[in-house]
Specification:
Layout (H helix, E strand, L loop, with lengths): L10 H12 L7 H14 L4 E4 L2 H11 L7 E5 L5 H8 L3 E5 L9 H7 L4 E4 L11 H10 L17 H5 L3 E6 L6 E2 L2 E2 L6 E5 L12 E5 L7 H11 L8 H4 L20 H12 L1 H21 L4 E2 L8 E2 L5 E5 L4 H12 L16 H5 L8 H9 E4 L7 H19 L2
Parallel strand pairs: 2-3, 2-4, 4-5, 5-8
Antiparallel strand pairs: 1-9, 6-7, 6-11, 8-9, 10-12, 12-13
This protein binds pyridoxal-5'-phosphate.
Length: about 400
């Protein structure tokens, strides 16, 4: 059986976690701070905060920006539910837009969806391929005349909506750590970029997430880091590490915050992952994706994903193959036939309007024809460090045989 995406856990990972366990400090501490510094250096930004998931990290961003009932947040219809769920959590309305042929948010559809209630845009780097961030940032800037900031909002002495004067662009980079736009790592393009280090992602801490800050002047990223750190720890003025200083026991609570800090056990895994990301993880994932490209490119039954173009390069997180011609039912039958050949594949993603909850909220799949057209034909193939070339060939063989079985030769 070839699994879909097991994490790479070896002696180095185990040793790093053991050292953290034996160090006497297991919650947020020196390893988390080191992980944050190393992530910031990698992404080329001043500050990164590491938290316990993409979901909680990005939800804090929406709360920091004062987004709530009556506000709209634009998301692609084609994404994982987390992108829209955080909008529901803060009581705002997810406004869905359709995607382009590369699965990423359509900037023209985005422009049409902006209203005076739009407070945030969350494009998604699906599979690791960066969205068209330059165009999306341009839409955010060019529609600033529609932006209507909340007047009574005060966060740490100022009003972030007044300061920015436009919709916040929060990139869902849950798949795209290490991907590049114009040669630069994802993280330094959107106002704020959210990464996920969930167990199945291309860089993992078991569970975890991080935010890279890139807000324009006059935002102070050190101040923003401090505020989000406080938000992640109940609004408490001192974290556990600061309180261990002799005599530094007293703290205050400035507001009823949340609890979503990263632990040093997670950071220990992340530091090992980061150490070998560029030298081992990314080259191996890239080689696997290129092997798939070569194997499927001469077969007209398949449509290949974009891995690279003149502006962007994927993180090689997912290999999102599409069938050139197939109905959703045929695709499902092909996946069953692949599973019968002992290979695990997946579908990324079921568009939000097909999920019971969002369907119940009145979203209609017919309004996002591209999202459906891509979803119905999509099959994600295994990509992970320990997948051998022979296994890649086995996956290819299983997929082609399954397609022949279901669609005929
Ligand atoms: C995994 C994922 C998330 C959520 O990440 P967590 O760290 O599990 O909260 C968000 N968006 C997308 C597109 C994802 O694939």
């Amino acid at each position: 059986m070839i699994p879909f995406s097991p994490p790479r856990i070896d002696d180095l990972t185990v040793k790093a976690v053991e050292e953290a366990l034996r160090s006497g400090w297991i919650t947020t501490g020196p390893r988390t701070k080191e992980f944050e510094r190393r992530l910031a250096a990698y992404c080329g930004v001043d500050k990164v905060i590491a938290l316990n998931s993409w979901t909680n990290a990005c939800e804090l961003v929406l709360r920091w920006y004062g987004i709530g009932p009556g506000d709209e947040v634009i998301v692609p219809a084609y994404t994982y539910c987390a992108t829209a769920n955080i909008v529901m959590h803060v009581g705002a309305k997810p406004v869905m837009v359709d995607v382009l042929d590369d699965f990423t948010m359509d900037p023209d559809a985005l422009r049409k969806a902006i209203t005076p209630r739009t407070k945030c845009i969350i494009p998604v780097d699906i599979g690791g391929l960066p969205c068209r961030m330059q165009e999306i940032m341009r839409v955010a800037v060019e529609t600033c005349h529609l932006f209507t900031p909340a007047v009574n909002l005060r966060v740490a002495g100022s009003n972030p909506q007044m300061r920015l004067g436009r919709a916040l662009v929060l990139c869902d980079a849950a798949h795209s750590f290490g991907a590049r736009i114009e040669g630069k790592p994802v993280g330094g393009q959107a106002d704020i970029t959210g990464f996920s280090f969930h167990a199945v992602k291309n860089l993992t801490t078991a569970e975890g997430g991080a935010l890279a800050f890139n807000l324009p002047e006059p935002f102070d990223t050190a101040e923003l880091y401090k505020y989000l750190n406080t938000m992640s720890l109940h609004g408490q003025s001192k974290d556990a590490l600061a309180k261990t200083q002799p005599g530094a026991w007293r703290y205050d609570v400035e507001f009823p915050g949340w609890k979503c800090n990263m632990t040093d056990l997670q950071a220990a895994i992340g530091l090992v992952e980061l150490d070998r990301y560029e030298s081992e993880t990314e080259p191996r994932r890239k080689a696997i994706c290129e092997r798939y490209m070569a194997a499927f490119s001469n077969d007209a039954r398949f449509e290949l994903p974009v891995l690279k173009d003149e502006h962007r390069e994927t993180s090689y997180h997912l290999f999102m193959l599409r069938l050139a011609k197939a109905t959703e039912e045929q695709r499902d039958a092909i996946i069953t036939a692949i599973a019968e050949r002992e290979v695990s594949v997946n579908v990324h993603f079921i568009p939000l309007p097909l999920l019971s909850y969002y369907k119940g909220q009145g979203y209609r799949m017919d309004d996002y024809p591209n999202a459906y057209r891509h979803y119905a034909r999509e099959i994600s193939l295994p990509v992970y460090y320990d997948l051998s070339d022979a296994q890649v060939d086995e996956v290819v063989g299983a997929v082609k045989a399954a397609v022949t079985q279901v669609l005929g030769a």
